[in-house]
Amino acid sequence: MIKDYYHRQFRADLSLFMPDTRVPYFGHSWAYDCGNLNKIQSESRAEFLICLYFTVLVDQAMYTYYKSDYDRFAQLTLYPKFCHGLGQFQKNPRELLLIPVQKGMVDKGRMENKLSEGMELFIDEVVDLFQKYMSHIDPAAFFERLIYDKDVQIPLLIVILPEMKNDIVVEAYEALCAAVEKKIKKKG
Questions:
Q1: Buried b (16+ CB within 10 A) or exposed e, 157-188
Q2: Are 15 and 83 in contact, with CB atoms under 8 Å apart?
Q3: Mean of pLDDT values over 89-94
Q4: Spatial distance between the Cα atoms of 60 and 174, rounded to a whole number of angstroms
Q5: Distance in angstroms (rounded) separating the CA atoms of residues 136 and 40
Q6: What does the pLDDT look like over 131-182, one tens digit per residue?
Q7: Is this prediction's pTM over 0.85?
């Protein structure tokens, strides 16, 4: 289960992937070589990438929509920053899933099989974090902003194109929306 991987192995794999804990930035060469992904065992790369995707995604969402809470969030989570350039401009986390699939560095079928479970874990972890440390943030409002963010949302026009139906980025977005519907909107 991806939940077991996240709680037992993800931080250790993240340390292999980003060995210098003083430098939380990565991704400068992602489009070319998926920098350091080869340090993660191929059997757990799908799980690693899904967990990395949602940690980067929540970090960027907190920075974008909850700036006044971001410093506290960053201290609590120590999440990595996916970026490029001298100014450390943030990259779209979609590339974390897309490029390794395109380069054949991760089994797409394995990743597809883990997406729904991964997105549900993502929601559970964010809700738990908010309840424990930032109870003033409404998870429903957070996820509403996230799924309609211009860098996260996949427009319906793209989703209906036959060649895009099996795109890992489209599948990840659909899994995120389904998890939000199941875990957040059903409770509300």
A1: eeeeeeeeeebbbbbbbbbbbebbeebbeeee
A2: no
A3: 87
A4: 19
A5: 37
A6: 999 999 999 999 999 999 988 888 665 555 556 567 898 899 999 999 999 9
A7: yes
Model confidence pLDDT, tens digit, residues 17-75: 998 877 888 888 899 999 899 999 999 999 999 999 999 999 999 999 999 999 999 99
Structure tokens that stand for 115 in this block: 């997406």
Sequence-ordered list of residues with C-beta below 8 angstroms from that of 187, at least 6 positions apart, any chain: none
- Cα separation, 37 vs 45, in Å, equals 8
Please report, to the nearest 10 degrees, the dihedral formed by the alpha carbons of residues 88, 48, 125, 26 taken in order: -10
Cα 146 from chain centroid (whole Å):
12
Distance CA 8, CA 108 (A): 23
Supply 94's token pair: 């979609």
Element (H, E) at 83: strand 81-84
At position 144, the amino acid (one-letter code) is E
pLDDT at residue 154 in the model = 80
**Sole residue written with tokens 């993800």:** 10
- In the block, tokens 């909850």 appear at 66
